[in-house]
Amino acid sequence: MRLSLTNAIKLKAKAPPLLLHHSSLPIAKSTLAFLSVLTPSNATLSLTGRPNTLTFLPSPFLRCRAAMATAACVEVKERIELTETEKKIFDRLLNTLRHFNLQTQLRVAGGWVRDKLLGKECYDIDIALDNMLGSEFVDKVQEYLSSTGEVAQGLAVIPSNPEQSKHLETARMRLFDLWIDFVNLRCEDYSENSRIPTMKFGTAEEDAYRRDLTINSLFYNINTNLVEDFTKRGLEDLKFGRIVTPLPPKATFLDDPLRVLRAIRFGARFDFTLDEELKKAAACDDVKTALAAKISRERIGTEIDLMISGNQPVKAIDYICDLTLFWVVFSLPPKVEPAVSDECYRLSAAYLDASWQLIQLIGCSNFNDEQRRLCLYSAVFLPLCCATYKDRKDKMYIFRDSLKRKASDADTVINVHKSLEKFLSLIPYILSNEDDVQITEVDWGKEFVDVPVTSKLRVLTGFLLREIKDFWRVALLVSTLLYPTNIDCSKDIMDKNFQLDKRKGIFVSVENAIVKLATKGSLMAAGTPFRDCRGMP
């Protein structure tokens, strides 16, 4: 029998949460009396050198353990520093409590706390309430603001939608140009065959333990200006750069398998280390089966898209490969033709690595965010670009079905893949700048049969750019990974022998030649409106 979240929490020691402070906390007698009940016994109050500030001397959870003496520590701020906008927002919320004499505790949950402690700005503020629904509190805030002559910039209630992982109603309010989400603290229980939990009001501790990772389980208590660590290890894991689940990882993943991909995404994003027990659980057959059965392709696709769009896409996909999750994430439909080798995932990861490094070497400014994202998708799916399956009467490509991304993404990646053969046939002639072009190995269509030889390079290049429009540089970059075509480059790619300088040279030479043709108006004459790397005329 699996360990439920509620039962697991009950087994935990009922010690008070670990606390940090905010620098604006006043040192009053009543405040100190309140803190003395909540602070750990080894916390020491110090007013030395910083008037009106509560400081903790280093405690065990902030010190490197002897066993981790060689591990790199992440710089974590001692206090959360609020922006002026955040101060105004929190002030309005606290004034609402005073105005109606409410005893509600307001806590900012999750990612905002983590990012602020890491010194990063975050505009995603989620507030958890301990004794009322979000919609009820938003009504109170709106009423208070009206009494002062202020008006909320926007109000919304997002209903629960368990099928889309939206388990509770969320109320939203726009204050000082920021959308704030309000929801009640909750605990949850999962049935055996569903990732949709039974939800009910919970305590802050129960809410912390139900979260995916310890680094995402921290709260910032607006009432007390304290960071609260109810799992008693969230701050430590953040400091040491560890990705750990609050409860046993296998039970956590079986309850909600999407947490596997979230763990990978955060591990890659922050360059944190995945816990060994977490890795074992993520790679086990039970969890892989649950991920395939419980999670929709759309939800998986959303997580992968965040990884590919993030700052460490290669590390994220490497984690997926190392944990033997590739074919669960990038699932293949039945009856794929031609058959796909089980080992081709290694080539997908290698093409992604090569593309990512080549983009950095060429210069990220040559590609906008959308081009960079779809370039990386084109690289991942390059070994599968010819694999198709039958969907009713139509032949469908793997990318369209695997992640269920928006149709335009699939169309772009498929068009990039279709253009590669033509680009590869043109590259040697563009590099040699020959007018006498003999291109016979690619079918360009009947309309190009009678094109004069002296015009063929210009016309065919213009035609190719017209086909792939703003993504021609993406197609060119992917083509350089396959060039020259008379040798098999895949072994070098697999062996991480990317020859990046050589491939950059090819890219830059071909790019310059195409831009030169455009500057002369040659591509305009071929019917191709030339655009720069950002899609601007």
TrEMBL record:
It holds the Pfam family PolyA_pol. It comes from the Eukaryota. The keyword Cytoplasm does not apply. The keyword Nucleotide-binding does not apply. Gene3D superfamilies: Beta Polymerase, domain 2 (3.30.460.10), cca-adding enzyme, domain 2 (1.10.3090.10). Residues 106-243 form the Poly A polymerase head domain. Keywords: RNA-binding, Transferase. Coiled coil: none annotated. InterPro entries: NT_sf (IPR043519), PolA_pol_head_dom (IPR002646). Signal peptide: none annotated. PANTHER family: CCA TRNA NUCLEOTIDYLTRANSFERASE, MITOCHONDRIAL, TRNA-NUCLEOTIDYLTRANSFERASE. Belongs to the tRNA nucleotidyltransferase/poly(A) polymerase family. This is Poly A polymerase head domain-containing protein. It comes from Hibiscus sabdariffa (roselle).
